[in-house]
């Protein structure tokens, strides 16, 4: 949602000499007496862009962390990462300024109520309302996950609902690359204990499934009025909650608050999202949201989600399977939710089809041999094996690259604070015209975009580019592909 100018937001009866207003980087006015929110590492203030004449939010480190070089570098890195995530459910990062005193990230100001305020003021929410929010949150997180990042701080305080019902994620202070342990800030791991995934708490590598767990905790609280685990009477340490996330099973949400009338299918979906082992949890946040929305639409009955979970997790080793394959399995299993046939019949059919005739096994063997031959040909002719080995994708002067971000700004010079000339959409081909330059800890390439009326020259961030590989013998690949398709059709005919 666009920000609006509201000069009255800065009206104050304070004496000018004791005014809490100040100017940041000669560009933004803030009111130190009116923070919008505070976290373990940062403070967010309401501000006004003096040039654009609009309200903004300015996020900075808490005073005790501002002098730590590593923490300031981590703060800069987060601002750069999020500046390239453009999504209607994500608060935009407009600018980054760094003074001797503190770093400042300038973010879209989002008027509305946080989920924290809604829960505190209104209590548990209806399933259909939660479903409308969940699908938007999942869309935003899916965008983040597609960029190879995980959020790691999904909680009601970081999710705003605007007046028209739009969801905005407003804080990405802990976001980091996936498949590695949580990065430390100021030598410590951060996160809100009530929504912390087990792998986050134990120092294991984090992934999209970690965000699913935290979102599951938020949905649990939206429906029941409290998160899965709360401090017991006399407990005052976060370690008690962390222990619960690691070792205790949550109470099914339908049993927490009977007055909330949580349907039984919610138990099945949320306990799947809150599995202690990430490999047996949803690893695709959209899959979680889609299933929840199906339930809210009346398409799931008690036991349906458990059947779908068996279809998805039993035949597929989740530790070796990507979210795309899980989604394909889910789409195949979706009709099961509508018709709910006995799971036993499915199992009988699966067993009967596993007893393949000897001739059919020969076809399978021929298919494997053909695949191996194709892989060898592709490697020697193209230097790649699609889906297995992508070859050398190193960017280099004189080469070409493809934009892989949804929208990437071409800038006057290297660095996030350089003026943006124009933006190029996903899939745009660009030519690399010179050597890379490192600015603010990131790599930038001089590029040229053909076909523009202007010069079409500038700098692009390396993280939004992928080297283009020359393909080679496409016709040979096509002919072999046709033979593989024919073999696959013959196997499918035998199975049917």
Number of strands: 19
Strand order of the largest sheet: 1-2-3-4-6-5
Overall structural domain count:
4
Straight-line N-to-C gap: 52 Å
Helix content: 25-40%
What low-confidence regions span 5 or more consecutive residues with pLDDT below 50? 1-17, 315-356, 379-383, 387-392, 470-479
Task: Name the average pLDDT.
Answer: 77
Apparent shape: globular
**Percent in strands:** 15-25%
Structural class: alpha+beta
CATH superfamily of the largest domain: Transferase(Phosphotransferase) domain 1
> What is the gyration radius calculated from CA atoms?
26 Å
For the sheet with most strands, the description reads: 6 strands, antiparallel
What count of helical segments does DSSP give?
Answer: 14
Q: What is the name of the CATH architecture of the largest domain?
A: Orthogonal Bundle
CATH fold group of the largest domain:
Transferase(Phosphotransferase), domain 1
